[in-house]
Amino acid sequence: MTSRKTFVAGFTVFSAAALTAGLCVNAASASPLAFAQMQAQAITQATQVVDSLGQSGGGIYLDNGKAIVNVIDATAQQKAEAAGFATKLVKHSFAALTNAKNSLDAVKNVPQTAWGIDTKNNQVVVKIYDAASKATVDKVTAAAAKLGDSARIEHRAGKLSTYIADGDSINNGQFTCSLGFNVTRGGEPMMLTAGHCTNEGGTWSGGDVSGAQVVESDCPGADSGLLTRPNGTGDGAINTGQEITSAGTPTVGEQIQKQGQTTGGGSGEVTSVDESVNFDVGVLNHEFGTTAHTDHGDSGGPAYDGSKGLGTLSGGDTVTSYFYPLTLELQSYGLELA
């Protein structure tokens, strides 16, 4: 894979007040990199504010690049607005939503379902697919009902599937996936992809890389796979030339880009975070859901926002694509971005 470096000059760092007032970048005319810079700044500043609110904070989400701070009382609302942010008065704190989501994690053996936190709607969103058995539907519906209005159920057509199929990206002779991020461990160059890909074993190749061996493979639970990179010249950049210099936590409403060997490039929006997705291969934890379109063979491919890497693709359906967070992969394996 040949990578080109992209340099962008003239960025302006905007204050929270300017972001809130919409004085920074017009989303319709902003370049992808400028918009990514705006989102990153909004997320950082809003997160600091909501963290200071403690139990009165309901999390944050993005609306066309602008951060909205959820609050559960007037005191918190005044504090957030004094910091320059638009607010939304909600019923449930982020801590309460997290507890609700964690209670659902105790529901086991329910393939073809998923649940995660939707801060925009101040709920845990529970997805049940047509492919789920009646027993699974009944079990998950009953568990969600106990959470009252802190949860909502969405019935989805079709079937959840992890993406691994024929193609021409990285492959082991039987299965094809996509390279997520070039990384290093202890100075050694390696490649990060999906764990349900590396679970297949074998020797992997793609681009100018050959003879790559599986070093780590975790799936289900996580969905991370690490391959050696015995040769190859790829650096820490997407094949479009966009450099990846950091890893970040996804935020509901965040506009993202993705790459995969089957569907190529594209964009989408983060719709949920900390999602537990019950694929047939088992439960994948801490996933984030997006509206990005992906398909078989895209597994392991990257989601990113400007120069910030977000995660590697696990799978999904025709509506939602799920990614495993890059921050967790780097921490788990002791990696650095190349």
UniProtKB/TrEMBL annotation:
<dbReference type="Pfam" id="PF02983">
    <property type="entry name" value="Pro_Al_protease"/>
</dbReference>
<feature type="active site" description="Charge relay system">
    <location>
        <position position="196"/>
    </location>
</feature>
<dbReference type="InterPro" id="IPR009003">
    <property type="entry name" value="Peptidase_S1_PA"/>
</dbReference>
<keyword id="KW-1015">Disulfide bond</keyword>
<feature type="disulfide bond">
    <location>
        <begin position="177"/>
        <end position="197"/>
    </location>
</feature>
<dbReference type="InterPro" id="IPR004236">
    <property type="entry name" value="Pept_S1_alpha_lytic"/>
</dbReference>
<dbReference type="GO" id="GO:0006508">
    <property type="term" value="P:proteolysis"/>
</dbReference>
<protein>
    <submittedName>
        <fullName>S1 family peptidase</fullName>
    </submittedName>
</protein>
<dbReference type="InterPro" id="IPR035070">
    <property type="entry name" value="Streptogrisin_prodomain"/>
</dbReference>
<feature type="signal peptide">
    <location>
        <begin position="1"/>
        <end position="30"/>
    </location>
</feature>
<dbReference type="InterPro" id="IPR001316">
    <property type="entry name" value="Pept_S1A_streptogrisin"/>
</dbReference>
<dbReference type="GO" id="GO:0004252">
    <property type="term" value="F:serine-type endopeptidase activity"/>
</dbReference>
<comment type="similarity">
    <text>Belongs to the peptidase S1 family.</text>
</comment>
<keyword id="KW-0720">Serine protease</keyword>
<dbReference type="GO" id="GO:0005576">
    <property type="term" value="C:extracellular region"/>
</dbReference>
<keyword id="KW-0732">Signal</keyword>
<feature type="domain" description="Peptidase S1A alpha-lytic prodomain">
    <location>
        <begin position="92"/>
        <end position="147"/>
    </location>
</feature>
<dbReference type="InterPro" id="IPR006311">
    <property type="entry name" value="TAT_signal"/>
</dbReference>
<dbReference type="InterPro" id="IPR043504">
    <property type="entry name" value="Peptidase_S1_PA_chymotrypsin"/>
</dbReference>
<feature type="active site" description="Charge relay system">
    <location>
        <position position="299"/>
    </location>
</feature>
<feature type="active site" description="Charge relay system">
    <location>
        <position position="223"/>
    </location>
</feature>
<keyword id="KW-0865">Zymogen</keyword>
<keyword id="KW-0645">Protease</keyword>
<keyword id="KW-0378">Hydrolase</keyword>
